[in-house]
Amino acid sequence: MTLSGGVVRTNSEAIKLYTGGKAMNHWRKGLTLALALAVTATTAACGAKTGTDVQPSGTAASDPVKPVVPVKQVQLKNGTTYSRNDSAQEKRMHDLIQEKTGVDMDVQFSAAGQFDNKMNLMLSSGDQLDVIPFVSPEKAIDLYKNDAIVSLDELIEKYGANLKKNIDPQAWPRATFQGKIIGIPNETAITTPTTLMIRTDWLKALNLPMPVTIAEFENVLEAFKNKDPDKNGVNDTYALSIRGDFSSLEKALAPFFLPQGMNPTLDEKTGLLMPPELLSGYKDMMTKLVEWNKLGYIWPDVLLSNSAKQIELMTQNKVGVLAGTFSGTLDSEEILVKTVPEVMYEPLLLKGNGINKIPKIPVTLSLTVVTKRNKNPEAAVKFLDYLATPEGYTAALYGLEGENYTKTSDGYFEFLGEDKVDHKKAPYYGKFYTITINFKNLLQWPLKTFSNRRMAENKAKMEKLPSFDPIDINVVYDKTKWKSYTKQNDMATYLLQEKNKVFSGEVPVSDWDKVMAKWKQIGGEQSIEDQTADYKAAKAK
């Protein structure tokens, strides 16, 4: 879970913002060609795009300028977080973007959990759908192979100067398939999100140092469980919990047991890309998890809990260490700080037999794509290129300064409305936000809230910790062409079930080799070969 534009969100979305920018004079009907050309020249000098190429109706200087008809485009957004039901501020932003780009952008929303269904229905029916933001690279490959979206190389070259200039060059490889750019990469603001977060105020209360080794960490778990760190006289705390599912435990702990964390490792003898579950370090980690579970260090509901229950446990002041994304503590801390002002979760790095570094994630985790049925794809790229400017990006996310928000003397944003910092109550928020770019030297989380400040603090601490790039960090696997493709769901289901059985003590860790032998029989052996082939092909390019 991360912060995006000042709001806590899942899937590691975090947005840097522009702190200035002035609206540009717009063209009006009836302007002479000379005035239109003057405005165009001024606009070019300012480095902004109007998206309206005015053509004279004749050669005479007195001929009137023909009005430009806006290009209708439709995009589909996942969920209704950004919808304000066509409020006045949303209409104001629509008109501004249309003025700047020449695009009449109609943003439609899917119900929660229905995005894929609605997208597929729109693509297969006669409904207009031109731009689809924030789809995974794997999904984009699938859409491209099925001729549903277009490559963008030539369009970006002609109309995407700001896209080329402002998007991190490291983001483009995951937007490229078979040598073609198939989407605009959305940058990840936080590239080291997963870790252990420990209550340093509890360490202080129990006079314990920050643990460094696995053994020292176990001593802390014992104290957090049994020595009343919250000082309420009741043995009601848990040393370790999660935000997410069982994989949160794996990802947070694996770097201290495995050579690539929970990422695949290249076997130098066989040349195969091996999943972490086949390595001896994984059994060592599972042995510790089973031991800690039996000792009561781990919250007993981790396997069956949901996000709401996990947050509730933390807000009750009962969790000493959280495994998951480092921002996963923020929503709970913001509530807990009202009754426990000293609460503080900080990232923790241990030393074990693994790589002992924080694994990075790719610079981009999603793409914004343009559909094949789009009758004017160049208009879509012009629209996206405007959003790739600080001015356009900030406007699309926050609206206009002085109309939807103001800035404090220290550069923070305050919404104009009933609540200065709650994006859900803002007159406008994010309806036309379609790409994510981390603009340098600009305020990243601009709302003056507890979560914004703590997020910035924790990110700075995370960036000081040693980190590493997994060996396949930029490889986008095309699983649809794998021989094991039809068996992937069965393999994943089986592996998760067996992990849960081992963790709960139903199956001994000593049987793990048998579990993985069966996994290989189900399709794992072929899957290893498939993944290795994709990996080597990507590295050969």
CATH topology of the largest domain: D-Maltodextrin-Binding Protein, domain 2
Rg computed from alpha carbons, rounded to a whole number of angstroms: 26 Å
Distance from N terminus to C terminus (CA atoms, Å) equals 33 Å
Question: What is the CATH top level name of the largest domain?
Answer: Alpha Beta
Textual characterization of the structure:
It is a single chain. The chain is of the alpha+beta class and 541 residues long. The chain is 37% helix and 15% strand. The two termini are 33 Å apart.
Record the SSE blueprint.
Blueprint: E1 2-4, E2 7-9, H1 33-46, E3 71-77, H2 88-101, E4 103-109, H3 115-124, E5 131-135, H4 137-145, H5 153-159, H6 161-166, E6 176-177, E7 180-181, E8 184-187, E9 194-199, H7 200-205, H8 214-226, E10 238-242, H9 246-253, E11 259-262, E12 265-266, E13 273-274, H10 280-294, H11 307-315, E14 319-325, H12 330-336, E15 345-348, E16 358-359, E17 364-370, H13 377-387, H14 390-398, E18 405-407, E19 413-415, H15 450-464, E20 467-468, H16 488-504, H17 512-540
Parallel strand pairs: 3-4, 10-14, 16-20
Antiparallel strand pairs: 1-2, 5-17, 6-7, 8-17, 9-14, 9-15, 12-13, 18-19
